[in-house]
Amino acid sequence: MAGRPREFDREKALVKARDFFWQHGYEGTSMSDLVEVLGIASARIYKAFGSKEALFREAVKHYEENEGGFAVQALQQQDIKAAINQLFQDAIKLYTQVNHAYGCMVVSAASALSEENQNLLDWMKQQRIERVESLIQRFEQAKLQGQLKHDSDPEQLGQYYGLVLHGLSVQARDGYSEQILLSNISVALKNLDQYLLKT
């Protein structure tokens, strides 16, 4: 009598796939890689997720709703400098995890793709643009609340701190230590002081 097939845990499979995509990128991950990592046949992967691209998109969304959700939480802080500081602190903690120092999945997993994957490249680019937009909106809110000087430019500030955030991801992936990255954000935060309205 044949044994019963092993139960398929879709959530666990998604997390495993997410981590592999996160480390190796979309084009650096083959279907055979996914078969090995998930421990299930390709037919079951297709049945559960539809395609490699569909699995990748779902993995990115999973990242954004879980690990990557730190940004949304940090920007909810009332004080703008505290919010940006928390954003960077949490980013560095995530990006430099022991045995998991892959930076930001949205920044690193599909930053360069071949022409055949242009639609996916455009989709990932939009994810990064939306993060910068959320920073711009947060600075606009801070200005309306009287936390920023009247001549400060929320769009410029949002673009700048988005640049810093994405740069931290690249440096973490390149092996820069948590201590070095923290020293870098201290400089970025000092730059913010000149735009703050003293109370």
From TrEMBL:
Repressor found in the keyword field: no
Pfam families documented for this protein: TetR_N
Top-rank taxon: Bacteria
DNA-binding residue intervals: 30-49
Positions of the HTH tetR-type domain: 7-67
GO MF terms, alphabetically ordered: DNA binding
Keywords: DNA-binding, Transcription, Transcription regulation
PANTHER family tied to this protein: HTH-TYPE TRANSCRIPTIONAL REGULATOR YJDC, TRANSCRIPTIONAL REGULATORY PROTEIN
Name by which UniProt lists this protein: TetR/AcrR family transcriptional regulator
Taxonomy of the source species: Bacteria, Pseudomonadati, Pseudomonadota, Gammaproteobacteria, Moraxellales
